Amino acid sequence: xxxxxxxxxxxxxxxxLFRYITFRSGGAFFTSLVxxxxxxxxxxxxxxxxxxxxxxIRDDGPESHxxxxxxxxxxxGMLILGTLTLSTVIWARSxxxxxxxxxxxTVGFSIIGFIDDYLKVTQQTVAGFSSKARxxxxxAIALVASIFTARLHPDPLTQNLALPFFKDTLLGLxxxxxxxxxxxxxxSANAVNLTDGLDGLAIMxxxxxxxxxxxxAYVVGRTDFTxxxxxxxxxxxxxxxxxxxxxxxxxxxxxxxxxxxxAVFMGDTGSLALGGxxxxxAVCIKHEIVxxxxxxxxVVEALSVIIQVLYFKRTGKRVFxxxxxxxxFEKRGWSxxxxxxxxxxxxxxxxxxxxxxxxxR
Length: 361
Fold this sequence. Notes:
By secondary structure, the protein is mostly helical. The chain has 14 helices and two strands, in the order H-H-H-H-H-E-E-H-H-H-H-H-H-H-H-H. It has helices at about 20-50, 65-70, 75-90, 95-125, 130-150, 175-195, 205-220, 225-230, 240-260, 265-285, 290-295, 295-315, 325-330, 335-355; strands at about 160, 170. A two-stranded antiparallel sheet has the order 1-2. Helix 1 packs antiparallel against helix 3 (about 75-90) and helix 4 (about 95-125) packs antiparallel against helix 10.
């Protein structure tokens, strides 16, 4: 929105700053952060008043959760999504299709998560929204997003998969690319959702992954950088740095209230939306495989659940003491802060590895 101010510039005045993605990204970050601090206390107070008993806690989970986390309100993801969406609309270019695709996915998955959280709170059950209905709606949103993204991509990249570590290498998928992109988006959404089980565990890795993807988006959106690094140029994706910067600001604001002991939980409202956003960004910038590296923590969390379920159905035994894997470490005696901080460190290392793929070709 504020990009239009650059039209009043003669090339050497204050208005010229609005031409630069980096300047508007900084503005989006601080706008989102300030809005989080302004509206966070009011939102938490309102959620506590409306929810009364808070989010239902699984009785088959770690025993400490039943005592320590009971009564904590959920749907705190609305704080991130509200500030993120508003800041992006204010600071990003309104004529950039990639921004609108990512916002579509973010808002769409947030609605699915909101319905799930609402049913859990009102019915005081951990069941929530039907898993089949969640997947169906998620894949529908992902299909729309993947079709629009394919239309935005230049012809050499449309329906092709870019491979990291290889120069100018594309794997032609044809129409198979669309279900692949859908799986990336839906898989990312649900992987982040599974990770969101401890105070602050999901939001920091989301911010780290978002920052890494934002940096890659900025790089692949500039011809000078792509020529130097031998990566595929995707015009217009640099604008996604504005979105990821707003995500960082909103995420930090939320973490202020979600730090142990959490005053509010993100809920599916936030985790599904933010995970879907990461997947959508990866599809937009043609770095779907790199997402599996940058978001490796989410991949491991999701795989731990899949392995646990399949092995239990086959043998009646468990591989992990409890899945997702962060609960396994809780059962082994790790404290919640130990798990959270160590998982943050792993996320940071994986993000750096993902960024290294830009240079190692």
